[in-house]
Specification:
The complex is a heterodimer of chains A (244) and B (264).
Chain A: H1 6-18, E1 23-30, H2 35-38, E2 42-46, E3 49-55, E4 63-67, H3 69-85, E5 89-93, H4 104-122, E6 138-141, H5 154-158, E7 162-173, H6 179-184, H7 186-194, E8 197-208, E9 213-222, H8 228-243
Parallel strand pairs in A: 1-6, 2-5, 2-7, 3-7
Antiparallel strand pairs in A: 1-9, 3-4, 7-8, 8-9
Helix pairs in contact in A: 3-8
Chain B: H1 2-8, E1 14-17, E2 20-23, E3 28-29, H2 30-47, E4 58-63, H3 66-69, E5 73-82, E6 85-98, H4 103-109, E7 117-131, E8 141-161, E9 169-193, E10 197-211, H5 221-231, E11 239-243, E12 250-262
Antiparallel strand pairs in B: 1-2, 2-3, 4-5, 4-12, 5-6, 6-7, 7-8, 8-9, 9-10, 10-12, 11-12
The chains are: A alpha/beta (244), B alpha+beta (264).
Amino acid sequence: MIFKNIHTIILLLTLFSLGACQGALQVDRVRDFKSKKTNIQKIVCIDPDFELLTTTGNKKTERRYRRASAKEIQLNNILVRNAQKNNLTLELVDTERLLPSNVEYFSQLAPLKREILQVSFLQDFVNRKKRKNQQKVFNRYEDGPAIGSHFSYLADEYGTRYFSVQGITTHRKPNNKQLVLLLTSPPFGVANLFSPEVDTYYYTIIADVVRAEIVYREIRRVDAPASDTNLNALVYDSFNIISQ
Amino acid sequence: MTALISYLNKGRWWTVDGGRTTINGGRWTMDGLLWTILLLCFAFVASGQTTGYQGKRLMFKTDLVSPVSERGINMGLEYVVLRNAVLGLDFSLTGKQYTQRITSYYDMYNEDPPIAASIRDMQVGITGQYFLNTALPAPKGSYVFGKYAIGQADIFAVDHIMREGEEDFLEGFEINNISSHQFDLGVGYQEVFFSFLLVDFDIGVSVASLFLNNNESELLPHREVLVGDFARKHGPNIFSLGVWRDTPGGIGLSMHLKIGILLF
């Protein structure tokens, strides 16, 4: 029976291997971070970043990195629009639109953003019980990485205790043309031949300045360019998780 | 749902017992099974972090390949039930025509009969899609899918009649209300444009079966062979690799290019 249908089995295996388009998502949050409990209504987003990273394959200029200001405006609009769709108010502070009189950004929010990024890089979420950190897609912890308590005054100033750092990094890589894909499945192969090899990373880190800790952290990777439809899907889903 | 239940009644592994359709020796009723599936879907919806595309979860899609390859239509409604899973109801109507190879006719005239045989098949089915990219929620991205469809088919074919002392002729015959089943398994990719337009491409293995024996009218054994000969191409819409088991119906490769809209 197996040998009679061996061609079908081979065909199925080929098809499933072709379908292995991958992405990744990891969400770490403290146990109390739930909008129904904490009633999150407003988040202050500190200067979202849109960064372009290019790996050329050339040894002299192996990596190129630059900030995309034009894309940042596009990202800002997507963030605000999708937050609204999830009944969240996102107050976006963008350095591109700052006036010379807005000095408080550099004295208040810029240090907070730096602190959030450093702490998120250096510390992990922890459970009180000495269990190993979970490695699932969605993880809940007792405590988040601790930030300085001297930022708590910002809660009164901005009318919310939640401040976020969000951004997109796209990584353009040399295109590895897959000849096997072209031979075994021409439609997928042709698409692969003409599409650039790009990974898009989207991250969100939310800090609670009153509790002085990072309460939510999310990182996503999709092997697709940062098009409007992709960003809308990513950002809406992100705010949907936050607002649940 | 009513249409689905009426089609399910034509199956093989369940029986009609005093007006009630029962499965597994009468322990489950068919209605009970369908309600269980439906309730399980709602339970999944309630428990999962279902997003859809910007909150939109209901889709209507129609296939562009089917009118060309199968002279039919294929359309369906799909709903995002879980973060990465979509369930759907599918309707297809095909009217494919086949060139019959009748050995006696070919030996005599060195050509195939000029009248084409045809299988007209109407099916309803359930589809399930699992989207592989965890970072991008359904209905966007690449997915694996399975589809099970059941329906009714009508077959038209010709038979070469030769009688001693008479001129040979071709006689057409029909077999109606045949129970048909089809199972598809494969991979696909779906893209969303302008936040509402869907383009879905999938490719997979199709297995089809036509249960001639369930038909009420008597079928001559050699006509069963005649039907089985061209019915091996029935099912897959691109190419057939051969016959699946001993029942007429083919196994092979199918491809669909669907366009649709995200309703709400």
